[in-house]
Sequence to fold (347 residues):
Amino acid sequence: MAFTHLTTMAWWLNCGWIRRADTVPLVLFEGHDPFLNHAIEETILDTAGTRGPTLAFWRNAPCVVIGRHQNPWIECDLPRMRQDGVHLLRRVSGGGTVFHDLGNTNFAFIAATGDYDQQRQFSVIIRGLALLGINATLSPRNDLLVEGRKISGNAFRHTRGNSLHHGTLLVTADLGSLGAYLTPPSTDIQTRSIPSVRSSVVTLSLGSPGISHEQVCDAIARVFCDEYGQDREDLLPASLDHQAVWRRRAVLTSWEWQYGMTPLFSRKLGGIPGVGATELRVRHGIITEMEPGPAALRLAIAGQRYNSSDLVALAETRDPNTGAALRSIAKELNEWTTNPLEKPGSP
Fold:
């Protein structure tokens, strides 16, 4: 899937790059590249102390977004995603796994920690939805619910002096795809990662036919401006460090971030030629140990990425017995995780 970057990276409403006493920073990202959108969000977070509380909106092309401390191999169906061209994105905040498409509105409150007020921010969302006739409530897990079903998940990050509260709103999202991509293949994986909590979900469009992303953004933005007692004014960005944005995007698309940040886990395998049942131990996406197994196989596989394509390539360089075992392991893993987006701007 190709993304257009430079010409549609963002267009700005009430952008807070210029501090004004009578305006609030309000940003709408026009592009749908999930890696670029989250890179922009992180760049704004780094400079949050230079402006008042900021509200941003965007939509992503189809992708699965996992929390910072999660294991993608147990959170989503990576083979199906690869087949369908749905990307994996690991965000900087904690929380669970979500599916994004153009029917999903993303929002972010970004502020210096002294201006950050989580309950006030939730109030802005709830009151904005109320303008559209939607009665949303906040759950103890920081989800937004309509009639007991989840319409919004939220996650948080606090850095040195700056804070981020971002979340999703299921406006017209494809719930069939959501269920399909967030149902991982059955594997015998033991992990220390934080699992997602599955919830019953519903789209806003079910109770409000015809509702749109633009309507949701406008209603919430109106409440945001009223809450902070300031007016909206269209401004062009005075400064945006584009190089910093592209550096962040490069990190977000890298194998080392997407898979290498995975906490320690192990996986049991069976039926490996010359081995039988065995177990792989994986740390930061790298196989550190295999036990039991022939010495030649254990030595060959240690230090390899938990990635079928790497193991298939390795098999070509080994003796026939070791090569056959490596190919069998690769087939059982079925994890072809090489990321075609490691270079910014590639399709």
Remarks:
- Residues 265-333 form a domain with the Enolase-like; domain 1 fold (CATH 3.30.390.50).
- The two ends are 5 Å apart (CA to CA).
- The CA atoms of residues 198 and 231 lie 39 Å apart.
